[in-house]
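PROTOCOL LOG
Step 1. Enter all chains and additional molecules of the complex.
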Amino acid sequence: MRSKGKKVNYAKWGYIFIFPFFASFFIFSFIPLMDTIRYSFYEYYRSGIKEIGPNFIGIENYLNLLKSDMLKYAENTLILWIIGFIPQIVIALVLAEWFVDARLKIHGTQFFKVVIYLPNLIMASAFAMLFFTLFSTSGPINAILMSLGWIKAPIDFMGSILGTRALVGLMNFLMWFGNTTIMLMAAIMGISPDIFEASEIDGCNSVQRFFKITLPLIRPILAYTLINSIIGGLQMFDVPQILTNGQGNPDRTSMTLIMFLNSHLKSKNYGMAGALSVYLFIVSAVLCFVVYRMINNEDLNGAKTVAKKNGR
Amino acid sequence: MKAKTLSRMRSIFAHLVLIILSFMCLFFFYILLINATRSHADLQKGFSAFPGKALLQNFMNVANDGTFPMLRGILNSLIVSGSSAAICTYFSALTAYGLYAYDFKFRKAAFTFIMAILVMPTQVTAMGFLRLITKMGMYDTLLPMIIPSIASPAVFYFMYSYLQSSLPLSLVEAARIDGSMEFRTFNQIILPIMKPAIAVQAIFTFVGSWNNYFVPALVIQSKDKMTVPILIAMLRGADYMNFDMGKIYMMIMIAIVPIIVVYLVLSKYIIAGVTLGGVKE
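Step 2. Run joint prediction.
Step 3. Record the structure below.
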């Protein structure tokens, strides 16, 4: 397809065309990354109007972070992610299976797809603000529950650990289950119908079919969903930030890692912010690598699928 | 007969679950729409399933509020999201074409590199980014939210897959024989071919940029440059109890509704776009 001799004259155009991308990446991502790593080894913060540092202090920022509440925030992030992710993946798998199952004769598939995907496009911060308003003690949800007689006094959702975390989980679930459903559905529809027919002739019931055929065959997409969700979970910010006004209330039990990073950036504590960024960078790189290897070690094709998903 | 009843039960159950989930998705927005039409006094009386008459009044209250310049915010958001979508899709297509149609020494290395940075979270570079744009004099301007979108690995990959599936290189050769310069070939022949991919990615980039909160919150300081998500965050941080509730609902509605309208009009393409190029098996 590519005749080598002829292309040589055009090689410079290849460089010219990809130049803007790499220039932009270099300036706005690479330099900042190096800067971030560099200052993670410095004492560099602002106290009042005075700027302290930068003084080189080795890995002290890293040690201080370990002694701070960082691990607690990591745990919060993990919990908030799991509360949203488990129902998201379960419901999405079930819905995807139902949508493609001709025997169920689901009516209005298109309508349901449009509705369940809708929350994915909503501004997360506005969605969180909406939930904050709706679920406040004087908000409509409490008013409805009371007028139905289900509760006597208003529930202080955002005053309890469980309530706040459940709300964040619910929002994440609502925002992402439609997207996952559509991804998984496309994956299931991509399986050759012959396989399903053969299984039916062999007397396979729908439960067996789901666990023995569908699940193994959509593994690359499941891997993609998992990686995407883990990376997204690690970056969780908008929803808990707005819902708790950046405080992570009650008692910082809904403070995520990025909220922590954000508070360091806002207070201009560059050294600590740098060290925290490096931790996050390492964790996300490791997570990606592990999950990627775990699920794709036998098929190289999976790697491509994972990459492709991101092109959504 | 028994198997048939069972399958019918399953079908009813499936529909029931779908209806409940759809209800959950729509219910909150329904309350939002209703409450945005009710006056503060009306809202204090409790919940109502029916709209009130204060829609216009609430809108005027929001439009005339200098503390939260919502309309200005919408304009800023439109500028940022529109420009981001335009330059992101253009340069991603350019990069994809450059790597697809030309053979050069570092072609493979460049491709592998972009794949490697595909999942890098933007937040980890935020600290250096903030310092950099301050030094470059772009702090508190809209530019830092627009220019970096030139390098969007995910959009690039989408464009690259699209080129692989729909651009025969012989077409490029033909253009050359006809004496078309390389840039002209790209702008006048390749871009039109890539229109479907560009449209899909433009929508997603626009929405992503419209909803983005982390970066704008770091780089924007003055009120007349704030985008919608920062205004929403400011609203959350304000002394909430003294507010006109009708106005709050109206502000949230203004932030959400434009995207919903666009979505409903384009839903067919958007939903197809979620998986387009995503699943090929």
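Step 4. Note key features.
The longest helix of chain B spans residues 2-36.
Chain B touches chain A through 105 residues (CB under 8 Å).
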